[in-house]
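Predict the assembly for these two chains.
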Amino acid sequence: MDALILGGGGMLGRKLAESYAADQEATLSRLSLVDAFIEPAPPVGAGFAVDCSVADITDPAVTQRLVAERPDVIFHLAAIVSGEAELDFEKGYSINLDGTRLLFEAIRGEGDDYCPRVVFTSSIAAFGAPFPEIIDDEFILQPLTSYGAQKVMGEMMLNDYSRRGLFDGVGLRLPSICVRPGAANKAASGLFSNIIREPLSGRDVVLPAERSTRHWFASPRSAIRFLRHAATIDTQRLGARRCLNMPGLSATIAEEIEALRRIAGDDVVQRIHDEPDELIMRIVAGWPSNFTATRARELGFSAETSFEEIINVFIEDELGGQLP
Amino acid sequence: MDALILGGGGMLGRKLAESYAADQEATLSRLSLVDAFIEPAPPVGAGFAVDCSVADITDPAVTQRLVAERPDVIFHLAAIVSGEAELDFEKGYSINLDGTRLLFEAIRGEGDDYCPRVVFTSSIAAFGAPFPEIIDDEFILQPLTSYGAQKVMGEMMLNDYSRRGLFDGVGLRLPSICVRPGAANKAASGLFSNIIREPLSGRDVVLPAERSTRHWFASPRSAIRFLRHAATIDTQRLGARRCLNMPGLSATIAEEIEALRRIAGDDVVQRIHDEPDELIMRIVAGWPSNFTATRARELGFSAETSFEEIINVFIEDELGGQLP
């Protein structure tokens, strides 16, 4: 199986490549990593050919060239994240909408004998308040950010191109990925990761939202499992609705902090400083916090069931398995 | 108030212009009718300036020119209908998606001191089976046609541009408009009109679907009321969800035919010939048939409550008020 990862320089793209490289069972023959901003690093120990490049999917010649290699699976993870798409209207629409469409059009342009699996990362940002207490699989998509609007537009094209047999798409509405490693990106949801990662790394951190804030989480490890499962799932079972609410854990910030206390102790937790920010609290109030994710669970997707698990994944995968 | 109607040569555009022209209370100062295909006819008896032109909204110079006149209200009714958008993939995306986006971008390009009301016709084709028995205002948008996908994409932009204050949008998910006058267009839903209009006009007609088929209807007169109400409604009451399921009448084809029999007699009804068509029946099975339309009703939108009413509107507005 030949795979192409767009957004291969991002956190998920990198971890996805590493996951395939570490997996002796993975039947990958070739992996192409492409990113617009960061030259992706080839994963260590891959038993398959890897090529890495910097390329911009808003250039139709680029998407045509990438697709002309006819990868069997295309992971389309490339996106301008929520905070930046909100600040830069044109950049968000250009990459998140036009880039996605150019990719899909390039696949269509390859003709009838090419029908790759396309795995597209949508987001729970596809939803916007007001919400029921728990969001089922039939709740209306009404985003409250440009990023969310662009993701829903991508979903619509994914469904339509798949229904027409132009490719075989699966869309994943990802929970907030937590704990994100490394420096914060411009995703507004970064605060949920920051309050775990920074204290565990010996640094103080500001908490700009209220501790009662509830949100929907999965670890990076779960996200990679979602992506790999989506690459091989039987899409007959999806019908025309190709996009799924991914499973996750519903937790409050207070519950995050209590899990951190149980794992790392009071001293670490004391590095969190409450400094409520009106703007951030208003943004966060528009976010969903709980899903049934019934369809996805029935299709074999699963995630963590406690915040301790989520923190332990971070400690194992990012801190070498032990507290600093 | 200056108004611009895009799609001014279509059935709704023409009737909307006629409605303003006939209304002594209408406070229109100017009306521009634009259509890509048909030179719109100026409405008779208008007490305001009218200009009519043929122009293609997929040309950015055209949308910029139209918007540069700074109409207070823009009715964006221009679209490739469902049947044609399904047959011609590129034309559908070009006009329904790109044309809509170019219009919205032209408005954005006018700058901060211009914020027109934009009334956008979406459709119940924004929904796709499987459905609950009655669709509420929070049911997921999952179209089963390219036309429906393009309409949802337009809705997403309408919400996003409105949320950002770039214009003041209202989207209307129209029921199937019935009874459509004149020759059938390429909308797949034309069959529901054909079986009323053709027999009333002394012509035989084929019914390609089963009589038990249930669907969601409003008359052209209701549609014009929806559009005019949307042009003046207080959008503060809409919040971020700018698109509304319009009220309508849920009726089966059998109920349509019984209403026709009560109004026009057995001889007229006998001009309907059942010739079930597998393809059409499969398409129709994916269409919604009943909505609560609660939000729209609370905002003052209303439609017919019996199919006799719908037929009588056709007889009054299209047949001069009497049976031929």
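Residues 89-110 of chain B form the longest helix (22 residues). The mean pLDDT of chain B is 95.
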